[in-house]
Write a structure and sequence with these properties.
Shape: globular
CATH superfamily: NADH Oxidase
CATH topology: NADH Oxidase
Order of helices and strands: HHHHEHEEHHEHHEHE
Length: 243
Amino acid sequence: MWNFKGERNVEKNFIDYHMMSINEPEFTNTQVYDHQPRQIQGNSDYPLVDLDYVLDQSNPFEAVLANRYSAREPFKGNVVVNRALLARFTQLAMIGGSKENRTYPSGGAQYYVDTYFLFNEDLLDQQIVKQGNIMRLNSDTHKLMVKQYQPWDEISKAFIQKYLVNSAQFTIVLSCDVTSISKKYTDISYKLVQQEAGHIGQNIQLVANYLGLESVPLGGFYDIELSKLLGDNQTSLYAFLLG
């Protein structure tokens, strides 16, 4: 059992807990599992309440929910990724315009999860990547901060699904600084950042569908390698490929 209460070094326990579940290249063969079809759940002998409803495809919100899916084939790249699209994407999925709170919930409105964009310089508008292709989103100032440049060939090494990453226009990585997340919520902070990453991830998928982008959420990345690309003492939590 993991018990963070009463510990003087809570951050170390977060890190140890996280490291128990990371992917490493030398363990890939044992960490990638054969797909198991989901078993449809039965109703047993319980009394039932019928919830049948036909989603209204003429309603934009219902259509986005109904048509959300995770890409399984190489990305087609049907949408031009430029500054205007990125501005619209980030405002809808994360920033939320001029209001104080963002478009996703966060425990105590602390917003501990950081968002990084890593761009494939070969497949999108060159004006975006002329100063670098690894950027951190600042939702408070509505800006992408250009951190550094790494060739997409190097970035792709951090991902297991090569057939997807090679055709992606960019990836979004959600991360946090595990040495600072315990300041307010101490022992439950790690749980809260995981929940926050899930909220952002659902927004990413829905907004991508709304804007015509394909997307796929991934656990299939090498944690240490991806975190090194981000820098800033970040620990990768969740990643998405888009194209």
